[in-house]
């Protein structure tokens, strides 16, 4: 009986594997494609632009700082594979005025053609205990991290649907998969990205437009260095439980997943675990991906409880140490 069940299961898995390409989107060809990268003057955004440029794409970089944009342009152009490629730079704050963002996208499309892929990398992180974070910080992060992705996406989506081709990439974070100490403002803005992406994918999939949400871990970027200056002790200790990735490593994986039309893009074993554990009602690109999530959820749930327990231990240890210092100070 067990042998019959095992045989049936193996045949079922094999059938799913054979059928999975039938529901997977056709990969996007980057040679000659127009890729727009917001927040593309540094960090992961710049590395994504370089990776796409290496594969023959035309690039539009969008960021606020003109000097950094021009520096990034020179760096990206070193990786050209033909003399027809172009890197266009446009300075604008993508989180403030939708009409400005819309005009910028129109300018880019007039010069380099319709946008084939939009990568929303503009964002920032500010950490701190909930009661210590100013209300204006919550508003600022939601504006930059969330609306800064809504506005460019809104500006390209109509043309993508009309052409029935396109990719939209949203940069969330592992802090957008699980809420962490010190990230009440940051995590909420990154969780919002996922909700936007899931709803948008449902709308645009019939038009052959695919959405990818990237959940990078701590990455060695200028933004991460700035974030570390104000991190609470607990947040920093939790962060140190995982390794820091290079922006080049993260960029390669995001571009690969976006080309394939994968909804989730994760980095490393921790990223894979988090994506599987928090998959919920998220879209899947293939039947096999869905099957993997079903099979592995039980094991990953156990691992996640161990992770959360370790985080609790770190926080409690910090509380004990602070209490000791407070008692010592009062005694002195």
From TrEMBL:
The keyword Ribonucleoprotein does not apply. Its EC number is 1.1.1.102. InterPro entries: KDSR-like (IPR045022), NAD(P)-bd_dom_sf (IPR036291), Sc_DH/Rdtase_CS (IPR020904), SDR_fam (IPR002347). Keywords: Endoplasmic reticulum, Lipid metabolism, NADP, Nucleotide-binding, Oxidoreductase, Signal, Sphingolipid metabolism. It catalyses: sphinganine + NADP(+) = 3-oxosphinganine + NADPH + H(+). One of its GO terms (biological process) is 3-keto-sphinganine metabolic process. One of its GO terms (molecular function) is nucleotide binding. GO terms for cellular component: endoplasmic reticulum membrane. Catalyzes the reduction of 3'-oxosphinganine (3-ketodihydrosphingosine/KDS) to sphinganine (dihydrosphingosine/DHS), the second step of de novo sphingolipid biosynthesis. Belongs to the short-chain dehydrogenases/reductases (SDR) family. This is 3-ketodihydrosphingosine reductase. It comes from Rhinolophus ferrumequinum. The gene is KDSR.
């Amino acid at each position: 009986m067990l042998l019959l069940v095992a045989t049936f299961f193996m045949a079922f898995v094999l059938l799913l594997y054979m059928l999975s390409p039938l529901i997977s989107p056709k990969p996007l060809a980057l040679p000659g494609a127009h890729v727009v990268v917001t927040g593309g003057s540094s960090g992961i955004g710049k590395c994504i632009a370089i990776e796409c440029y290496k594969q023959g794409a035309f690039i539009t970089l969008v960021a606020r700082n003109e000097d950094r944009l021009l520096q990034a342009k020179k760096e990206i152009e070193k990786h050209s594979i033909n003399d027809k490629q172009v890197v266009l730079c446009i300075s604008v704050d993508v989180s403030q005025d939708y009409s400005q963002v819309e005009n910028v996208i129109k300018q880019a499309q007039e010069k380099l053609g319709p946008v084939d892929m939009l990568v929303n990398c503009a964002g920032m992180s500010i950490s701190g205990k909930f009661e210590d974070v100013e209300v204006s910080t919550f508003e600022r992060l939601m504006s930059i991290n969330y609306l800064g992705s809504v506005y460019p996406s809104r500006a390209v989506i109509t043309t993508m649907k009309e052409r029935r081709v396109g990719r939209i990439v949203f940069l969330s974070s592992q802090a957008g998969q699980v809420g962490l100490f010190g990230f009440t403002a940051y995590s909420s803005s990154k969780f919002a990205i996922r909700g936007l992406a899931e709803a948008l994918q449902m709308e645009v999939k019939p038009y052959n437009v695919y959405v990818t949400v990237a959940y990078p871990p701590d990455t060695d970027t200028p933004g991460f260095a700035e974030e570390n200056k104000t991190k609470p002790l607990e947040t920093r200790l939790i962060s140190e439980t995982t390794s820091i990735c290079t922006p080049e490593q993260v960029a390669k994986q995001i571009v690969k997943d976006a080309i394939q039309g994968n909804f989730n893009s994760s980095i490393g074993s921790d990223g894979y675990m988090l994506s599987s554990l928090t998959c919920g009602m998220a879209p899947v690109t293939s039947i096999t991906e869905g099957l993997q999530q079903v099979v592995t959820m039980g094991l990953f749930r156990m691992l996640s409880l161990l992770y959360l327990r370790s985080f609790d231990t770190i926080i409690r240890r910090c509380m004990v140490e602070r209490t000791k210092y407070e008692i010592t100070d009062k005694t002195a």
